[in-house]
Amino acid sequence: MMLDFEISKLALTDLDNIWEYTVEQWSKEQANIYYNEIFMVISKICENPETGKPIDEIMKGHRRINVKSHMIIYKIQGTTIYIDRILHQKMDIENHIGE
User: 38, exposed or middle or buried, with CB in 10 Å at 0-12, 13-18, 19+?
Assistant: First the structure.
């Protein structure tokens, strides 16, 4: 069963920042490609919610999955995947969840 997804306001801001940074560093075309790759992974999460690695030691019930140099932090809420954040892999999850 394919689950729905919801993206938090913080994760939407993360997406905007990722897109803008990629445009500045590379190009608008590359930013669009990366943006689409992130959403392809979100779609895969919706198809198989258990695909991400559990991070219960950081935030109970949350998982993470990498997309190139970023990680999607999410939790399963009934029939919805809730995307909390989309962070760079070098960022400390604990300091950025629930900001």
Answer: buried
Q: How many other CB atoms are found less than 10 A from the CB of residue 92?
A: 9
- Number of structural domains, the chain? 1
Which strand (E) or helix (H) includes residue 30? helix 28-47
The closest of 19, 40, 17 to 30, measured between CA atoms, is 19
pLDDT digits (tens, 9 = 90+) for 30-80: 999 999 999 999 999 999 999 999 999 988 999 999 999 999 999 999 999
Separation of alpha carbons 80 and 46, rounded Å: 8
**50 in any annotated domain:** yes
What is the C-alpha to C-alpha distance for residues 33 and 38, in angstroms, rounded to an integer? 9
Report the CATH number at residue 59: 3.30.2310.20
The single residue listed with the structure tokens 């995307």 is: 83
